[in-house]
Amino acid sequence: MGAILVEELALGTGETAVAVKDSIAVAGYPTRVGSRALADAPPAAAHAAVVQALLDAGCRIIGKANMHELAYGVTGINGWTGTPVNPRYPDRVPGGSSSGSAVAVAAGLCDFALGTDTGGSIRIPATCCGLYGLKPTFGRISRDGVLPADSSLDCVGPLARSLAMIERAMALLDPAFHAEAAVVRPRIGVVAVTADAPVAKPVAQAVAARLAVAPVEQVPVALPGMGAAYDAGLAIIAAENWRAFGHLARSPLLGADVGERLRAAEAVTAEQLARAEVVRAAFTAEVDAALDRVDALVLPTMPGLPLTLAAAVDARATIGSTAFVRPFNLSGHPALSIPLETPDGLPAGLQIIGRRGDDARLCAVARALDIVTEQSGGTGQ
What is the pLDDT of residues 188-213, one digit of tens each? Predict the structure, then answer.
């Protein structure tokens, strides 16, 4: 399984097979977060709360999944552990940081996988690999035993080949989650977004095609605070990653892209963070207000196509792929990515945003937009 699973495990005996991202503790195994700088990390003394919940529910943990180093990148490229090959689109990046989790699901190694999402790290690899990926409402799923230990943005969530499996995973992780029947003709707010890259056009076409055949009422919605929310999210993730991993910043063992980004994070000031928190409050209120008028918001998951492996060599050029996902980490709203394909057969995603705390209804609204049946395999294609 090479670069997909960094540890092959056989924990539990249930029929539901799960892979767990290497930033999530599994007792008896080190949590290396995909980094050579943490190669000598001691074995975890206890399971992360989410791992324990899955084992208690009768799941079988098949392994710890590879990831973008320190969960601080969106391509999934990792020079130490290797880069998992995107099963359906092998010339494209698998997406990060939950690259191994996405590839394990797409390759059929497990029923679902756990990823983490601080700035799109579930939804981006889900899009790249043709999967469903859910970032739950912030704080809904325990992060006890997850690195970095302290985060005001990060969420643990599932990636799967079907919406039904996303809902099953959520019910296993949170007994308060109960799947709901599909919402009949939901009122959908279509968020106005723009992207400069020419590749954004086929993504927009794929999203429009899905909306055109879905039984929904569409209304235009503007979120003028998205740009500021994106910038604020970048400032906060930088400061929080510096607090967590700053001691590694000058280690020669770090990958060049992560080392450069981590060292730059030291420069984030208290004033920048204070402004970011003002933006957080304002954007959260803006999204809440929009959701008072509609059942859910929709927009593309990414502004363009997933990068080819060759194009992703310039790590600095990849951050912009999170422009449409990162703002909702800042606001804390649940966000689900549904897989699409462009007219040319390339991967894209439709992102659906729901009300905070109402993750089950978000999935129910998604059923109206997800015209692929369970019998077709739930690939979304």
Answer: 999 999 887 777 888 989 999 999 99
Strands 132-135 and 217-221: unpaired
- What is the model's pTM? 0.96
Q: What is the mean pLDDT of residues 2-21?
A: 95
Class (C level, CATH) for 5-376: alpha beta
CA 322/CA 132 separation, integer angstroms: 17
Cα–Cα separations (whole angstroms), residue 146 to 25, 51, 265, 281, 334: 6, 10, 21, 25, 19
Using one digit for the tens of pLDDT, what is the confidence trace for 281-294?
A: 999 999 999 999 99
**Is 64 tagged catalytic?**
no
Catalytic residue among 23, 35, 97, 151: 97
List the domain boundaries for the chain. 5-376
Find the angle CA(132)-CA(308)-CA(116) to the nearest 5 degrees. Answer: 35
Q: Is the peptide bond before 148 cis (omega within 30 degrees of 0)?
A: yes
Residue of 23, 35, 99, 121 marked active site: 121
DSSP 235-296: HHHHHHHHHHHGGGTT-TTS-HHHHHHHHHHTT--HHHHHHHHHHHHHHHHHHHHHHTTSSE
Known active-site residue 101:
no
- Is 97 one of the catalytic residues? yes
Rounded CA-CA distance 246/289 in Å is 37
C-alpha–C-alpha distance, residues 270 and 300, integer Å: 33
* 195 CB neighbour count, 10 Å cutoff: 18
> What residues form DSSP beta bridges with 19?
63, 113
